[in-house]
Write a structure and sequence with these properties.
The complex is a heterodimer of chains A (about 250) and B (about 200). Chain A is an alpha+beta fold. Chain A has four helices and twelve strands; from the N terminus they run ββββββαβαββαβββα. Chain A has a single domain, classed as GHMP Kinase, N-terminal domain (Ribosomal Protein S5, domain 2), CATH 3.30.230. In chain A, the strands form three sheets. In chain A, strands 3-4-5-7-6 form a five-stranded mixed sheet. In chain A, strand 6, helix 1 and strand 7 form a beta-alpha-beta unit. Chain B folds into three domains: about 40 residues, Beta Barrel (OB fold (Dihydrolipoamide Acetyltransferase, E2P)); about 60 residues, Nucleic acid-binding proteins (OB fold (Dihydrolipoamide Acetyltransferase, E2P)); about 70 residues, K Homology domain, type 1 (Ribosomal Protein S8, Chain: A, domain 1). Classes of the chains: A alpha+beta (about 250), B alpha+beta (about 200). Chains A and B meet through strand 5, helix 2 and helix 4 of A and loops of B.
């Protein structure tokens, strides 16, 4: 968004919400929140709230899109009409949500083992309930947890974060104000195990050196997000494990 | 698998340092990694989540989905529907009928041909995850026999993650099966199921 005057967004080395340059907003991820979907996850990332649901593998509709060698992935990112303060999502799918759906689809095509389910379709639906900047990375992070929750075989749990420049300073995880009034924004999705970059977009201008530095910052921050994803998935099973082990003390197993 | 430490892994997590061909895993130069949520048990991966892919010889519980000119399409709790030819049976089925059947053949893209259909009626159908079926059956069908003994129910456990329960104390049988599914990855399960069935819980 073009603005006439520069906004002061860094005061005494802190950002508007009190975070340091490398700090993420508070993130919580919950897996398996929907009963009817094969897999689901809800992510709360600062003021962002994104619900992801997985359906499939199932029969392909429309049928002519069937691939006899692998499953096709249909990703759908959309913002709820009540999600933002602006016009986002108010009129259904638009250029922006179609673009994000497309890039999300390519992210998942790289990690999901589609060759195991020929002639089927996997639907990845990401619903932004509340937005505050960085929803595409939040949505893909949540969808990745939902895919694992559904039991769809994949090579890695993808995650990511956006990094950008505000008031000449590179910062991690921009919120809406920083995104709108900052100088640039660079969402990045990666496969944490191999370090492969699966999505890399830049809005605004960054120098070569800044991009390299921003990528390092994103990689570092993504490690924390990946830990949260793993905890969300393992948590349910480990809770049951702990309960039964406590109940079995002296039970003579 | 009673007294070992159970490690739960997520997709992309390293399972073995060397390259191995295991179900639910994939290997590259760095080692062997999990592809789904699973539990590492000795040298294999026990999946906690997954889909049923039909294999020849499997006994399954299906639901008639559609009638076609030469047979039926059977819904199998799987990404792939089964095909049942009218040549296999003299019985006529209606859409919605529950049948037990055998997977006769599967083609290279997992599409199954169904044989030996038998109509099931008067009972209840329970959908569970197909990866939990080995645990419901137990070693040498011990678990399923325990449930049968205590509840006097007739049980048919389909490999596709569908359980048909008829007669006896079905409510108790279903509670036991759901408990098995919830605690499939834990140890000492048989004892706890017996306790539930005997009303000690």
């Amino acid at each position: 968004m073009a603005v006439s005057e520069e906004k002061q967004m860094i005061v005494n080395g802190k950002r508007l919400d009190g975070r340091g340059f490398n700090d993420l907003r508070p993130i919580s991820i919950k897996a398996g929140v929907l009963k009817r979907a094969n897999g689901s996850a809800l992510i709360e990332w600062g003021r962002n709230k994104v619900l992801a649901g997985i359906f499939g593998p199932r029969e392909v509709v429309p049928r002519h899109m069937t691939n006899p060698k692998r499953a096709i992935i249909q990703a759908r990112y959309i913002m709820a009409p009540f999600s933002g303060q602006e016009e986002h999502g108010r009129s259904g799918p638009n250029r922006r949500s179609m673009e994000i759906s497309k890039v999300a689809k390519h992210v998942f095509e790289n990690v999901v083992m589609t060759n195991m389910f020929p002639k089927t379709m996997i639907n990845v639906d990401m619903e932004v309930l509340q937005s505050d900047g960085g929803t595409r990375v939040a949505a893909i992070t949540a969808a990745s947890v939902a895919l694992a929750d559904a039991g769809i075989p994949m090579k890695d749990l993808v995650c990511g974060v956006s990094t950008g420049r505000i008031n000449g300073q590179l910062v991690v995880d921009l919120d809406k104000t920083e995104d709108n009034y900052g100088e640039s924004d660079m969402p990045l999705i990666l496969s944490p195990r191999t370090g492969e970059v699966l999505l890399h977009q830049i809005d605004g201008k960054l120098t070569k050196e800044e991009i390299a530095q921003a990528m390092d910052m994103s990689f570092e921050a993504s490690k924390k997000i990946h830990e949260l994803q793993v905890a969300a998935l393992k948590g349910r099973y480990e809770r049951v494990l702990a309960e039964t082990e406590n109940g079995n003390n002296g039970g003579g197993n | 698998m009673e007294n070992e430490k159970r490690t739960i892994v997520v997709p992309g997590e390293k399972v073995f340092n060397d390259q191995r061909r295991v179900d639910g895993g994939y290997a590259d130069a760095a080692g062997t990694f999990a592809t789904t949520m699973a539990m590492v048990h000795e040298d294999r991966l026990v999946p906690l989540k997954g889909y049923y892919l039909p294999k020849p010889g499997d006994f399954v519980v299906g639901i008639v989905k559609e009638e076609t000119f030469n047979g039926y399409e059977i819904e199998l709790n799987s990404p792939y529907d089964g095909r049942l030819s009218t040549r296999e049976t003299r019985e006529r089925f209606l859409v919605g009928d529950v049948i037990s059947a055998k997977v006769a053949d599967v083609n290279e893209i997992h599409e199954p041909i169904i044989a030996e259909p038998r109509k099931l009626g008067g009972g209840e159908v329970l959908d569970v995850e197909s990866v939990k079926v080995p645990r419901i059956i137990g070693r040498n069908a011990s678990m399923v026999e325990t449930i049968k003994q205590h509840t006097k129910s007739e049980l048919f456990v389909g490999k596709n993650g569908r359980v048909y329960v008829k007669g006896g104390n079905t409510a108790l049988a279903i509670r036991a099966i759901l408990k098995i599914c919830k605690e499939a990855h834990t140890g000492g399960l048989t004892d706890r199921i017996v306790a539930l069935l005997e009303g000690r819980e």
